[in-house]
Every structure is written in C-alpha cells, then in structure tokens.
Amino acid sequence: MSKTVLITGASRGIGRACAEVFAQNGYSVAINYNKSEAQALKLAQKLRESGCDADVFKADVSKSDQVNAMQAWAKERFGHIDVLINNAGISVVGLLTDLSDSQWDELRGVCLDGTVYCSRAFLPDMVRRHSGCIINISSVWGVHGASYEAAYSAVKAGIIGLTLALSKEYAPSGIRVNCIAPGVIDTDMSRCYDLEALAEETPLGRVGQPEEIAGAALFLAQAGFVTGQVLGADGGFGA
Questions:
Q1: Is 33 among the catalytic positions?
Q2: At 180, is the secondary structure helix, strand, or coil?
Q3: Rounded to an integer, what distance in angstroms lies between the CA atom of residue 44 and that of residue 31?
Q4: How far apart are the first and last CA of the chain?
Q5: What share of the chain is helix, strand, coil (3-state, %, to 5)?
Q6: Which of 25, 56, 139, 223 is the most buried (most CB within 10 A)?
Q7: pLDDT for 92-132, tens place per residue?
Q8: Sequence-ordered strand ranges (E) for 193-238
Q9: Residue of 27, 117, 152, 170 with catalytic role
Q10: pTM of the entire structure?
C-alpha cells in the first residue's frame, strides 16, 4: 500500500514541485488549492497519467472549517495521510508601519494560522496510527529576518517555533515534525524581487529551484530518525 502525502498550496511553485517529486517516488498525492483551480486540476491529471493516485481539494487554509472539511475528505478518499506538507503561503513586502490590518490578517492567516489549523486537523489520526510526518515550509527570513519583510519574517519565525514545539509534543506518539527554511527560490512569489541581485548575494551564486526544496521535503519524509529540525535550503544565503 502506497503512502499518501497532502500538500497545501500545491497548484504551483514549491507545492507543485513537491507533488511531482513525491508522485515520482511512489506516493499518492492529495493536492490542496484555494484560487488556482485550473492549475491544480492540470497537475492532478498529469500525475494520474504517470500512474499516481492523485486528487484535488479546494480549501482556504486560513479558515479552520475548510481545513477540517479537507481532513474529512482526505480520510475518506485516501484512508489516511502519512505526510502533511504545510506549504501554502503568501508574502507582503514593505515597511511594518505601512502594513494594514487586513494585510497582516491575510498574511498570518494563510502562513501561520493555516499551518496551525492543518496540523491540528491531521494530528489526531496520526496519533491513533502512531505514525506520521509533518513538514512545514518556513523561510530563511524566519531564521534571520529581512528588511522590508518584518511581518513575513514574523509569521515564518512562528512556523519554526511551532515546528520545534510540536516535534517534542508528538515524538512520543511516533510523529515527526520538521521544517524547511528555503532561501530565494525561483517561483511566481519571488518574481517581485531582483533575482539576479539576490543570486549574487547567495554563496552558491544562483537562486534555488522548487524541485530542490521538494527534494529536501522528500528527504525529511523518509528520514525516520530526524525530527525537530529546521533544514536550511538557501544556497548558503543564511550562513
């Protein structure tokens, strides 16, 4: 029986790459999306054509009732979820003093609240099975902070704190919780930056690709004695 991964925000970027890499490695894939329906459906079709059991579910992870509905669907559709990847995220660039309440609510809701709600929804079944793995996607800015991205840095730092706490809380139940802190990755969300300049600031001399973060996620999913870790995948940017 194949293992199943559920990935939030899986219609594009890092989430899409995770879906493809896990499918290539024999996982069934549950694809979560909120707005990009056409991309999510196209991805699911591509994975099915490759022989993967894949399906999609629309849910805004900042809404706990929608997350709970997604968990119920996943349990009925796949039986259980072995790996949960909390990837859904948005960014806000600008001075903290220019941040509106609505921007903060949306940023926190998708990035941090979404990670909390999804973890809370899927952990009970993992506890019953005494098995499971949660992988949270944070950021190098959550570790080191970034000018003009104080709010984003704050929510990503919150994800790291949540990861460390949950890893201790659920290790006795056989559940592993880890985090990836990507550097600058070539995704739609990063196109607002000067990627060429950021590549020059990165010791490896380039920005990362979504598939490289997906490879890190696959490693954490399969590394049975690794928990409570923040894996920097940033080309040395945060060194």
A1: no
A2: strand
A3: 7
A4: 41
A5: 50, 15, 30
A6: 139
A7: 999 999 999 999 999 999 999 999 999 999 999 999 999 99
A8: 230-233
A9: 152
A10: 0.96
